[in-house]
Amino acid sequence: MNGVSDPTPFAERVLDLVDRIPAGKVMSYGDVAEYLAEGGPRQVGRVMATWGGGVPWWRVVRADGRPVIGHESRCLARWRAEGTPMRGERADMRTARWTGDHQ
After folding, report:
1. All domains of the chain in start order, with CATH
2. How far is the CA of 9 from the CAs of 13, 36, 69, in angstroms?
């Protein structure tokens, strides 16, 4: 037992959405909450920190496009491999942002 409980229904919805973000695209924590119309950036961040290892976590970024704290080099390597539009060491939110399945 790893001490982590099973994901909550909200966490499942967050993880399902993150799993659908296409390669080369990103969503901010706030984008995820807004898309789901529940929670907020902090709640999404908590879900990702607790259960996000099995989904493409590098596709969820801070609002300014910076990668996840503590995982910057791994995140940047994934972005480069996927062709994520970048400005320096940040995702270019203007061109990299994914707004959902209707793009």
Report:
1. 9-93 (1.10.10.10)
2. 6, 12, 26
